[in-house]
Design brief:
single chain; 159 residues; alpha/beta; Rossmann fold; five-stranded parallel sheet; binds coenzyme A
């Protein structure tokens, strides 16, 4: 069975992330969406909230599961029996960082291959921070995130 891990902070998950996860799920038997504990980022949503939103967003995808993780990504991959890491590339500006990360991960564990999928053109400009900032300023982000995330942002900002 070919298992791949798609990791990120997902604070929150966007339609751009979902597009990558869905396309990856057609290439592998199983995709594990690995939600990073904090990744040194001051997250708006805690780990449990982020996992919950991702689970809801992929609930119609039978071969995608969601697991929180901490520590090195390659160690997590090994613990799950995964042989590939999925990364989405949005623009040339993503490339340097992604190349560095892929090479580091290969150095740490040569048995795990990084597979890059190009973002769909309509999601090129989306990032989690753009979504958060727009929502805080009252922007309508409903076309950019799954409904559960739009709802969670609304609730969080109403507090
Ligand atoms: N669509 C929309 N947005 C996307 C995207 C896509 N396809 N791909 C990336 N992004 C956005 C993310 O939302 C994020 O936005 P933000 O910075 O505004 O929050 C940004 O691009 C960066 O994403 P990414 O590079 O995936 O970083 P991340 O913080 O979400 O996750 C980890 C990075 C967790 C995968 C990485 O730090 C890691 O592996 N950590 C574990 C420790 C480790 O193993 N380190 C050694 C290897 S680096």
């Amino acid at each position: 069975m070919k298992i791949a891990v798609y990791a990120g902070t997902f604070d929150p998950i966007t339609n751009g992330h979902l597009d990558i996860a869905r396309r990856a799920s057609c290439l592998f038997d199983r995709i594990i969406i690995a939600v990073a504990r904090d990744n040194y980022k001051n997250t708006m949503f805690d780990l449990e909230e982020r996992c919950h939103m991702v689970r809801e967003a992929v609930s119609d995808q039978p071969n995608i599961t969601v697991v929180p993780f901490d520590g090195l990504l390659v160690d997590f991959c090994r613990s799950q029996g995964a042989t590939s890491i999925i990364r989405g590339l949005r623009a040339v500006s993503d490339f340097d960082k992604e190349f560095q990360m892929a090479l580091l991960n290969r150095q740490l564990n040569g048995g795990i291959e990084t597979v890059f999928l190009m973002s769909d053109a309509k999601y090129l400009y989306i990032s989690s921070s753009i979504i958060r900032n727009s929502a805080v300023l009252g922007g309508d982000i409903r076309d950019l995130v799954p409904p559960c995330v739009a709802e969670a942002l609304k609730k969080k900002l109403a507090k």
